[in-house]
Amino acid sequence: xxxxxxxxGASASLWERDEEVAAVARAxxxxxxxRSSAGGLLVFRGEAGLGKTALLAETRRIAEARGCTVWSARxxxxxxxxxxxxVRQLLQPALVSMxxxxxxxxxxxxxxxxxxxxxxxxxxxxxxxxxxxxDGLVAAVRRLSRREWPLVLLIDDAHWADQETLHWxxxxxxxxxxxxxxxxxxxxxxxxxxxxxxxxxTVAAAADAPVTTLSALTPDATAGLTRAALGGHADAAFxxxxxxVTAGNPYETVELLAKVRDSxxxxxxxxxxxxRELNRSARGGGLVARLEELGIDATRFxxxxxxxxxxxxxxxxxKLATLRPDEARRCAELLRTARILTxxxxxxxxxxxxxxxxxxxxxxxxxxxxxxxxLRTAMHGIAARIVSDEGHGAAAAARHLLExxxxxxxxxxxxxxxxxxxxxxxxxxxxxxxxxxxxxxEPPRPESHPYVLYELAEATxxxxxxxxxxxxxxALGMPGLDGDKRVDAVFRxxxxxxxxxxxxEAVRTVEAEAARLQPGPARMRLQAVHFMWEGLHAGEATxxxxxxxxxxxxxxxxxxxxxxxxxxxxxxxxALMHGENxxxxxxxxxxxxxxxxxxxxxxxxxxxxxxxxxxxLANAYAFTDRLDRAETLYNEALRAYETAGWSGGHLALAHAxxxxxxxxxxxxxxxxxxxxxxxxxxxRVGRRLPLYWTATCNLVDTxxxxxxxxxxxxxxxxxxxxxxxxxxxxxxxxxxxRGRLLLAVGRTxxxxxxxxxxxxxxxxxxxxNPVLVPWAADLAxxxxxxDPTRAAxxxxxxxRRAERFGTDTAIGExxxxxxxxxxxxxxxRLAAQAVAYLESSPCQYEHAAARIEYGVAARSATDLHxxxxxxxxxxxxxxxxxxxxxxxAGAGPG
Length: 894
What we know:
five-stranded parallel sheet; two-stranded antiparallel ribbon; 44 helices
């Protein structure tokens, strides 16, 4: 076999890497071909020392030779607890080089969301949404890629990247087709678990080609490398021993050959036996011994550098190692000569505050692990103080504080709490969780202990509702959490139970806490929350007199504070669900507003009451034919969450209800687009949650209205739109929608059974609004042939309830149902009455359907043409086809 040499000027670690280098070159060429080129992603995997860093250096050389902008970053084993560490390395230098106004202009609306995570903007006053921050960082790359095209991002040692960076990297990987960026990632196999492993799997799945696993050098390549380093006279037996000692590891081979040169060992077979001892001095115990030979000061310097991990400046290391500046400079030179530390390599493109870095991550790890445990802990404590004194803040010091042994230090608890607040403000709840969990081990003093638990629950609320539940229960079980903070904790606990699909327990929790309070604002707030959760419960656990108690309490409310406004909204929603008069429902909701707008403290991003209450308000307007008000609220929610960077469940719900508004209005194409976006966002949050049901149910309902039955069935199958149903109310009623779907696909018996189940569930809850729970009209149509008597009875009941509710939409839909069960002139008269009501309704799809049904019954071409135009405008393809078919059949002139 011939020796495979690297390209001229490339690192020795590139021997036998021709295929990998060629893949890089092809990817760079594709990127540079056109500004509209789609992005690319390459992932290289290999054990330590197999040349991953050298391959990235070669990628930089190739890319810069073609005129690319290249930014790079590296994960660090001791830095994984530092949120956004790696993505800051990548993007921060370019943004810091801009004027503040220029950076704000480039990031646009994302500046206030992604800027704090990147360290170029101060965080806002509330907890940032992690998914929103992730999306903001993806948007930052998209915008910077247009400015810096062609842009190449290099990430080394991704297995040691912080979790927040990996979250961003996974999101970026899935969106690279939208931007002209090449991303090249290297990592070791294994090494990570949990969320970080899932993110790296997502990155691997999005790569342009299967992940490339780097292999060790062959004996022939090792021989070539040996002769290139030591001279062509190195004999074959010596070269074979180099390969045997290093197992073909390029890094270890290069290091061993450097030691051979330094020791002036002759590369001949007779001296080959000395190679193994030389190699041992490069790692583990051999490295420790080599450090000791350099003296105690140099050892302390190396230890301090390993503790810092990043930003290794001689001055900072001197403070940590308690060395004078001249001693520190001497030690730095000794460690450079010993190939333990080195000046940062300009070819990597990484910039930072440090004067030094370790020659290789393997050495950094070995040095760090060589520090005696007790001393390492003490040095982390000193490092935390030094970092704080340097003005870097509690969050920067936190990674050191996490390593300090618990010692009943209330000051340390305070520092960790402050660090957690900083982490939450930039969208790193997992980092905040680590700080607060460490604070609990200190432990906190009794007076602060429940507050630390409460803050920990805030950190886990968006990502781990089950964990939040146990933390809040523990906090509430301790003395000291009183007043408004206790009420907030009870509310948060009930919200976490709701999100964990434990709504009955949420109801009991709030009810018990309200019962122990004296009359006043706090008790009224919890009473309102209690009624809210009961109102959302889809089971049969509510007390029979709930509506009466709520009505009695709301009757005394004038809307003077948010607790009273909440009770008015809840009473309005309850009346809506029971099908009471729509005018009275709207009047109750109007009283909950201030000058027609949401009151201060009741905004979409305010946390005192949560999103559920405001959705009740908006939905009450939507289903009482006040669509203008409903759509204003839905769109306000969408804007508020997008502006605040909330890209998780809240934004998913906002898109779902914007879609519901479009569906009610009859804009079916717009509804479908909004609901699909909602479902995309909901997928990231998790299936089977209430928000997931809302998106799926409304999408199926919209597709059925469009006449896309097969597509509706496919969505239902893909997203699990089938029993068992959630414990929370979903609008419109999912049983009714699934029953209609089953009828549409020809499963009549199953459809009837599902609608009868909807009837039973609605009766148990007293939900008699035929618009929200429309099972009866569909069941009447399904039974028209098989059981006409029951069908007629159902139609009469639908009309009675619709007239009680009193909206044009409800009455018009009831008349449509009645007309469908009749023939001859009676069918014509009922269809005409349905059209008359629905002409005054804001629901254009229902109006179009009534117009076409009247045109068919009356054989009126005029009405069929008008209905056809309306159906086309709505995007109701099935209705439009029905109208065309009727016209072809020869309807009269009208």
